Amino acid sequence: MRPPCRPAVPTVRLLLPLLLSLLGAPRGVGAGPAELRVRVRLPDGQVTEETLQADSDADSISLELRKPDGTLVSFTADFKKDVKIFRALILGELEKGQSQFQALCFVTRLHRNEIIPSEAMAKLRQKNPRAVRQAEEVRAPEQLHMDIAVNFSQGGLLSPHLHNVCTEATDAIYTRQEDVRFWLEQGVDSSVFEALPEAMEQAELSHCRQVGDRGKPCACHYSLSLAWYPCMLKYCHSRERPAPYKCGIRSCQKSYSFDFYVPQRQLCLWDEDL
Ligand SMILES: *[C@@H]1O[C@H](CO)[C@@H](O)[C@H](O)[C@H]1NC(C)=O
């Protein structure tokens, strides 16, 4: 008779040249979010620290990283509401007369296969916190045309995370018609969404780079990258277990590029430096 609960540790070590593994017992209810700090290599080669938090009670994951230019990028996955929120806090260049920082929020539909479940994320531990991690897989970049505004005061009806995450971006929360259609079918109230003035008719609206007048509306562009995130669970086989079991993660990197309407060209000043 074999011992029922012996972990197959040697097998795991052999099968996985993995830096991270799923260890430990499930967290108790009310234990609060689990946090993991990892050092990651950005697409441009620089190293930064990334914080990943998972809250299995709220069924959500959040990720935050600071880019070398000071921009704070955050990503929140709300599995309960099928919502993901990207936020960028972009530092202004004070010597150019820009404000201290500018916040942007992009809200889109979360699909199940984009990132590992929150309960698996909450169990992630790393063996070597000093190691610099590089994603195993670079996923295809995504272009998103953000053509609808989200009303901040109604945002809680879409996701309870929106208020916290997008506080600094009350006038700059964007989403897409195709995502809105999905959420409306899920029963989200339509008062959350507002049409943008020009409905982003790209043909008529000039790109901000081509607009000289800082008071004119234009189509702005912003891209960000999630440098390292657990995108899939890995399964191992063991002679001691009847079925494959979760024994690690696969890490991914992915870039997102957003087009959106700004009422004034001066709200899109980073486009100048391109
Ligand atoms: C947001 O929604 C509230 C409540 O429906 C409304 O009073 C307010 O005018 C809306 N804000 C904007 C900017 O449309």
Chain-wise SSE layout:
Blueprint: H1 9-15, E1 20-22, E2 34-41, E3 47-55, E4 60-66, E5 72-78, E6 83-91, E7 101-109, H2 118-121, E8 124-126, E9 132-133, E10 137-138, E11 142-146, E12 148-150, H3 162-165, E13 173-175, H4 177-185, E14 193-195, E15 218-236, E16 245-262
Parallel strand pairs: 2-9, 7-13, 10-16, 11-16
Antiparallel strand pairs: 1-8, 2-3, 3-4, 4-5, 5-6, 6-7, 12-13, 12-14, 15-16
The structure holds 2-acetamido-2-deoxy-beta-D-glucopyranose.
Can you give keywords for this protein?
binds 2-acetamido-2-deoxy-beta-D-glucopyranose, 274 residues, disordered N terminus, single chain
Structure in words:
By secondary structure, this protein is mainly β. It has one domain. It is 9% helix and 40% strand. The chain is built from 4 helices and 16 strands. It has helices at 9-15, 118-121, 162-165, 177-185; strands at residues 20-22, 34-41, 47-55, 60-66, 72-78, 83-91, 101-109, 124-126, 132-133, 137-138, 142-146, 148-150, 173-175, 193-195, 218-236, 245-262. A 10-stranded mixed sheet has the order 9-2-3-4-5-6-7-13-12-14. Strand 4 and strand 5 (72-78) form a beta hairpin. The longest helix has 9 residues, at 177-185. The radius of gyration is 21 Å and the shape is globular. The N and C termini lie far apart (67 Å). 32% of the residues are buried. Residues 1-30 have low confidence and may be disordered. The structure holds 2-acetamido-2-deoxy-beta-D-glucopyranose.
